[in-house]
Specification:
Layout: H1 7-17, H2 26-33, E1 37-38, E2 41-42, H3 45-79, E3 85-88, H4 91-104, E4 108-113, H5 128-133, E5 137-143, H6 150-162, E6 165-169, E7 175-179, E8 183-189, E9 196-201, H7 205-220, E10 222-223, H8 238-248, H9 253-260, H10 264-278, H11 283-292
Parallel strand pairs: 4-5, 5-6
Antiparallel strand pairs: 1-2, 3-9, 4-7, 6-10, 7-8, 8-9
Helix pairs in contact: 1-2, 9-10, 10-11
Length: 296
C-alpha cells in the first residue's frame, strides 16, 4: 500500500484501471481528493503520489524540529541529568537505531564488536555499504575469538573488502557503536538472554568517555589485513626477541644498532616492519602488542 493511500482506495484505483466503474463512497472520494481520478476517469499516479510524498517529507521535518524544541523545554525543567540517555528495550529498536546512526553519519562510525548477542557471529549491516559509498569511514575492533570461525572470518573480511578498517583484540568488553561525535549505542543482553537492552547516548561527558574508550582499544588492537594472513608464523625469532628487549629497555636506535652490530637504518627498518606486522602505530603500541603475544 502506498504511503498516504488507504488499501480500499488503492484497490478501487487498480479495479478502475481494469475497466471497472467507481461507485460513490469513501474510497472514491479519497481518489478524487488526491487527484487520482477526475470525472470518473483514472489519472496518472506519479505526480499525485509525488505530492503526497512531499507533504510527508515536510511533516517529518516539522516533527524533528518540534522534537528538538520539546527536548530543550524538557531539559530546562529539571531533566538535564538524564536527557542524554535513552533506553531501548526491544531488539528491533536496537537494530533500527544502529542502522539509523549509520545512515545519518557524516564522517565516521567507530565500533567495538564482541559479536552479536542474538547470534555468536558478527553480521554485516545493510546500512554499511551505502554509508561507505558516500565517504563515511569505519573503524571496528573485533573480539579475536570471532575470527576463529569460518563464518566470522568471512563476515569481517567482507567488511574489510568494502572499505572498513578492522582490528582485533581479545576480551572486547561490550558492544559499542559511535556515530561521529553525536551519538553512541551500547547494547547488552538481558538477564534472560532472550532480548537486548541498549542505551542510546547523546552528547555528554559519558559520550566523550566512550569515545576515549574506543580509541584506547583501537591503539592496543592488531590490524586485520585483507585475506587475514598476517606474516607472524615465523615470529618471534631470536633476533626479534633481542630487538624487542632492547626497545623495552628504552635504548636509542643508535645504542641498539651498536649492540646488534648493524646500522641505525637497519634498526629503523626492522622496527617499522614489526609495527606493520602487529598493527602498531607507535613504539609504545609495539611493546604492548609484543608483550600480549608473549614476545617479551
Amino acid at each position: 500500500m502506498h504511503e498516504g493511500l488507504s488499501r480500499e482506495a488503492e484497490q478501487l484505483y487498480l479495479a478502475m484501471l481494469r475497466g471497472a466503474r467507481s461507485e460513490p463512497g469513501t474510497a472514491h472520494d479519497e481518489l478524487k481528493r488526491l487527484g487520482l481520478i477526475r470525472d470518473d476517469e483514472v489519472r496518472p499516479p506519479r505526480s499525485a503520489l509525488a505530492a503526497i510524498a512531499s507533504s510527508h517529507e515536510a511533516a517529518a521535518v516539522r516533527a524533528r524540529e518540534t522534537a528538538e524544541v520539546l527536548a530543550a523545554a524538557y531539559a530546562s525543567h529539571g531533566a538535564k541529568e538524564v536527557d542524554f540517555v535513552e533506553v531501548l528495550k526491544d531488539a528491533d529498536e536496537v537494530i533500527s537505531a544502529f542502522e539509523e546512526m549509520q545512515s545519518q553519519a557524516k564522517s565516521e562510525i567507530r565500533a567495538l564488536d564482541p559479536g552479536s548477542y542474538l547470534s555468536p557471529q558478527p553480521e554485516a549491516s545493510p546500512a554499511q555499504p551505502p554509508a561507505l559509498a558516500r565517504g563515511v569511514g569505519y573503524r571496528v575492533v573485533y573480539e579475536s575469538a570471532l575470527l576463529q570461525t569460518e563464518r566470522g572470518f568471512a563476515s569481517v573480511q567482507e567488511s574489510i573488502s568494502a572499505g572498513e578498517q578492522a582490528r582485533t583484540f581479545p576480551g572486547v568488553p561490550l558492544k559499542l557503536v559511535i556515530a561521529d561525535a553525536d551519538r553512541a549505542l551500547i547494547a547488552v543482553p538481558t538477564v534472560t538472554g532472550g532480548n537486548v537492552v541498549a542505551l542510546l547516548i547523546h552528547p555528554s561527558v559519558l559520550l566523550s568517555a566512550l569515545s576515549e574508550l574506543f580509541e584506547a582499544f583501537w591503539r592496543m588492537a592488531v590490524s586485520i589485513t585483507p585475506g587475514g594472513q598476517e606474516d607472524t608464523q615465523e615470529e618471534p625469532t631470536t633476533a626479534t626477541r633481542r630487538l624487542m628487549a632492547l626497545l623495552s629497555a628504552g635504548l636509542t636506535d643508535e645504542s641498539i644498532a651498536r649492540e646488534l652490530g648493524v646500522s641505525e637504518r637497519t634498526v629503523h627498518r626492522r622496527v617499522s616492519r614489526l609495527q606493520q606486522l602487529l598493527g602498531a602505530q607507535t613504539r609504545f603500541q609495539l611493546g604492548v602488542q609484543a608483550s600480549r603475544r608473549g614476545w617479551l
